[in-house]
Amino acid sequence: MGGAGKLCRFGEERQTFIFSEKSVPVRRRRANSDFFAAMSKLWQNGYVGTGGLGVCMSCRKACLIVLLISSTAALAQVSHSEQVQIAPPLMRGVDPPAPEATASALEFQADRLRGEKLYLDALDYYRAALAKKTNDAHLLNKIGITELLMQRYKEAKKTFERAIHYDRTFADAYNNLGVVYYEGKKYGQAIKQYQKAIGKDSSSASFFSNLGAAYFSKREFEPAVVAYQHALELDSEVFARTSRSGVQAQLPSPADRARYNYTVAKLYAKMGFSEQSLEYLRRAMEAGYKDLKNVYKDVEFAEVRKSPRFTELMASKTPGIPD
pTM for the full model? Predict the structure, then answer.
């Protein structure tokens, strides 16, 4: 019986030690190793003395608890490789605006800083310029763009609205306000702003491209195609430029992304841009466009189908998106 009592105390003491291991893992490593050896021996030897069965079961339970705790701790250590760290806050990296600098000089410096992605510094210089050219809509628009790039959507919205207030004919400000709504997934309001921008200036491919993206995100495909066609007629490189520096179309599903790429490929083919058409056709295939067989009967692809690259592309096997 004395032996049994000793074993129970041993088990209780060691369990307490294991629960506190996180705080002292280095100093207790040897004791921890001895403990596991003792537990292993008890497990192998069975029970000890009168009433040993109860003691044996307690020890085995203690062993199982220890092993579970150790496994959980190991998994916790492994999970650290997947941790996410918050980036440091944006910092100012240049001298503040000089009080004697002209508004044009301040604006020029702000443009350069924004191009270098030093957004806080750019805002300082734009605002200093605005203090010298009060209520200037073009400066307000640039401030709004910088806030938009910083994902300060509420501030950007107010700034673009101020720009429009001081210049009701300023098409860029309407377009950029539309982008704020678009980023907030308020596609109907974005469309209204893009249409206002087009009403002020119908020569901008970006306005029509943005309008097409908003329609596409609403799954209104026919007006989206019309808007995209206008954009391509104005600038055949509008999609390539947007993909490098603009806001991407917010397509809610892989199937919609595949359809978007096929639609753009079809538009490029219709306008005679075979290389661009094949590029977007490849993207549609990679996205798993399910109706790819239409490429053989859509009249827009008639010239593209004559290209050896088309034959090579179609020979590749790309799995479709499941229903």
Answer: 0.66
